[in-house]
Amino acid sequence: MIEGLLVGLSTLMSPMNIGILVLGCLMGTFIGMMPGLGPVTAVSLLIPVVLTMQPATAMVLLAAIYYGAMFGGSTSSVLINAPGESSSVPTTFDGYPMARKGLAGKALALCAWARLLAERLLRCCSCWQPLPWPAGRWFFRRQSISH
Length: 147
Fold this sequence. Notes:
Layout: H1 2-12, H2 15-33, H3 39-45, H4 47-50, H5 55-79, H6 89-100, H7 104-126, H8 133-139
Helix pairs in contact: 2-5, 3-5, 5-6, 5-7, 6-7
């Protein structure tokens, strides 16, 4: 198991993939800043481009564009009160008033950290998915409805 993780990290750390990662994050951020264009649109527009790439590099590019577009949607919702996608709507509740008070940088930093922590929490919780049946039953108890 650890060997597969090390192979994946060595593939990610190649200079080509690092460059693609940075480029994808920048492109995703710019696409996400446009109201109405979200991460799903950005990824679907780039499917013809990634079909010509190596599979690992294509996955790095798509993931980078997706996460960059998620942050870009937060940027437009904080700065101009126009969310780029539906998941950025709650950001307008607190982010836009903070930007009007001159705290736009703090609001954007909070958005970035919140997305990072939420993504990491999701990754940790997804490791629990293949639970044995008794442990899964303990985590996901069914609610009984009495008449």
